[in-house]
Amino acid sequence: AAKERGKGGHFVYVPGMTTRIVAHAELGARLRDAIDAGQLFLEYQPIVRLDDGHTVGTEALVRWRHPELGIVPPGEFIPAAEQTGLVVPLGRWVLREACAQQARWLAGLGPAAPSYVSVNVAGRQLTEADFSADVLGALADVGLPARHLMIEVTETAVVDAAAIAVLEALRDADVRIALDDFGTAASSLGLLLTCPVATLKLDRSFVDEITTVARQEAVATAVIRMAQALVLSTVAEGIETEAQARMLRHLGYTYGQGYLYSRPLPPEALAARSLAAPALAGLAVQHTS
Ligand code: C2E
Ligand code: MG
Ligand code: MG
Ligand code: MG
User: Fold this and answer.
1) Per the confidence metrics, is the pTM higher than 0.80?
2) What is the pLDDT of residue 17?
3) Would you state the pLDDT for residue 285?
4) What integer pLDDT is reported at residue 129 of this predicted model?
5) What is the structure's pLDDT at 249?
């Protein structure tokens, strides 16, 4: 009943639609079932070096293969999962799956494997007891050295000293820490003094019109200067055009991800892409500015 009909009488996807449907249908119970029923799966988006297009890592992104709704993107269920607390078991599954996949790539692709997998972690997970022990346990279970894992937290997730302590424990164990969607929250600058972060991910909202909107270029410039002064690495998100990539390289950004390089891919497609990588990197070098 809640599906909306397009002009031709077929169903069309309306942003926010699944949130409404699923909320009505007790998302909590269904998402919990989804985990048990194996309806969640991960795609992996390459994170590339901007100067030659070489894939250095991937970001794991969760999707829900819903029996009636089809593939539901995370924006439609992660916010609700955060509210209900279900993001904790969901996040635990994501972390284990991503670590297991990274271990398989390292074993199967050898030097062609991306060197790390980056996993989004919600604020609720960070404040959960034993989160760092859980992460280290997942790494140990699949035999993945910690340096092959990055975790992405948003500025709003790092709420207190306890969350910082958790990140410090992970950092001390060699897990890489990135601040995701950097620049979109109010607390960014103070956090850089206390949070043991190694990487800033410049939010897509500062990239989308970077070549035409002077204020976006100004923010991107301010962020890279700050990152360089603090010796942090940078990943620019949401790069869709060669002009954006050229501008970001010019400003000094080292890494990026976006549809220009690749959409998020199933693991087999990511592996195939990695094996074809030397040729791709060679092509990218030719149009480096
Ligand atoms: P994010 O962590 O900032 O991830 C980047 C999002 O931007 C992804 O959307 C990705 O598919 C999209 N993207 C990448 N390149 C481009 C581009 O060139 N143009 C545009 N327009 N978009 C691009 P996705 O997969 O829908 O994920 C949305 C958000 O959901 C993520 O944003 C993250 O906050 C959250 N999320 C995804 N997976 C997980 C997870 O396992 N756990 C948690 N807690 N959150 C997750
Ligand atoms: Mg992310
Ligand atoms: Mg992001
Ligand atoms: Mg973002």
Assistant:
1) yes
2) 56
3) 47
4) 81
5) 97
Model pLDDT, residue 193: 87
CB 194 within 8 A of CB 217: no
Answer whether 151 contacts ligand 1 (Cβ < 6 A).
no
d(CA 154, CA 192): 12
Question: Does ipTM top 0.95?
Answer: yes
Q: Whose CA is nearest to atom 45 of ligand 1?
A: 120
What's the full length of the chain, in residues?
A: 289
Determine contact, residues 152/59, Cβ cutoff 8 Å. Answer: yes
Residues of the chain with pLDDT under 50: 1-11, 24, 281-282, 284-289
Residues 150-164 as b/e (b if ≥16 CB within 10 A, e otherwise) read bbbbbbebbeeeebb
Q: Which atom belonging to ligand 1 lies closest to the Cα atom of 81?
A: 44
Q: What local confidence, expressed as pLDDT, does residue 21 receive? A: 53
| Residue in 146, 135, 59 with CA at minimum distance from that of residue 91 | 135
Does any ligand 1 atom lie closer than 6 A to the CB of residue 125?
Answer: no
Question: What is the model's pLDDT at position 5?
Answer: 43
CA dist 111 to 6, 52, 88, 246, 278, Å? 48, 17, 33, 28, 11
Distance 179 CA to ligand 2 centre (A): 9
Cα 83 to Cα 56, 120, 123, 236, distances in angstroms:
33, 16, 11, 28
Confirm if 178 and 184 have CB atoms less than 8 A apart: no
- Ligand 1 near 264 CB (within 6 A): yes
Nearest CA to ligand 1 atom 12: 238
Q: What is the DSSP string of 172-223?
A: HTT-EEEEEEETSSTTHHHHHHHS---EEEE-GGGTTTTTT-HHHHHHHHHH
Q: State the Cα–Cα distance between residues 63 and 270, nearest whole angstrom.
A: 16
